[in-house]
Write the structure tokens for this entry.
Amino acid sequence: MHETSYALMIVDTVMEALKEKNLEDVKVKKIILRVGELSLIDPIALQNAFDALTADIPVLSGAKLEIEIVSAKIRCNKCGKIWNFKELYPELKENIPIIHLYPHIVADLLKCPKCGSTDVEIVQGDEFQVVGFEIE
Ligand SMILES: [Zn+2]
């Protein structure tokens, strides 16, 4: 499952950072993530996968994942137009929880609204990063 591999990556990254700082006897209460809206992550599934993975890791178990959403920005290599998710779907307010339910939206998004070209580049919006964490 998609979310499990991301959850594993979070566990590895945070454990590595704790080790580097010699903070192995602590309890992490919050982990802050930057997630692009094109990464198709379901925040609830991600938290569930994380909880399952960390059930036996006292340092991490119970930590809450806080997600900062990075809006998508796409550029057409043919005509140079730059657009985003909101421009194509102004009626949608919350991006991530919706976009993961409708992956076909991504296909629409990856087509230039001006010239129709699919020779496009994701400028931002497909990232997944652990930006920090808080210790109890
Ligand atoms: Zn174009």
About this structure: The chain has five helices and six strands. The longest helix spans residues 2-20. Residues 76, 78-79, 81, 112, 114-115, 117 surround zinc ion (CB under 6 Å).
